[in-house]
Amino acid sequence: MAEQAITGYKRWLESVGEQGVFFKSFFRNIFRGGFEWSEFVRQCYEIGYRSMMLVGITSFIMGLVLILQLRPSMLQMGAESMLPKTLAVSFIREIGPVIIAIICAGKVASGIGAELGSMKVTEQIDAMEVSGANPLQYLVVTRIIATSLMIPLLTIIGDAIGLFGGFLALNFTDDISFSLYFHKCISSLEFIDLFPALVKTIFFGFAIGFVGCYKGYNSNKGTESVGIAANSAVVTASLWIFVIDAVAVQITSLLFYR
What we know:
Strand content: under 5%
Radius of gyration: 21 Å
Oligomer: single chain
């Protein structure tokens, strides 16, 4: 048992070291000339536009369900008028960013891991290196920057759709105008609700892109490694999202709620 624990610890340290080297290579290639703008735009389309439907449907259902779940409790306390404010603050500050990031981890990180893993298996990455191309700059840098940009945009769109779903749910039982509902939602939000939520989505996007690229780029040879890379990317990215969220909540509490 002790030997197995030591072996596992050594493998973990090796993995951490490899990720550190990979991050250094990514950071160094950002500032090299010849940025692949066409690939970057294509990745923004693949990551952002192609994920919009899934994010929109999920956000709409979450907003609708949250209002239906909150209404009985708020009605018992005589605070039914606080439903728009409660939904807006909880959804935009915490629920929306985390759930949307988890969805994108399942879709985007697995896709990147499988794509780069298959390129590794078929030796396309080796062929790029032999031909003089820079696979890190073309494959890794463009994807990580695209996820860091698209995840915040998807979160903003998802938040708006989620609030609209809450409006429809509230109109199932109560009669409230569209303008009044969104006025209550927007007036309840402050800087400390919007800015930290937006900043942490950038880190969510970076984690999703980095983990997906690392797992795919460093996958082993063999067809089974493609599935392993995709699955490992989803699990690791999801764990990083929760870790980043916990750290962000602590930092926000120290800076804004003291």
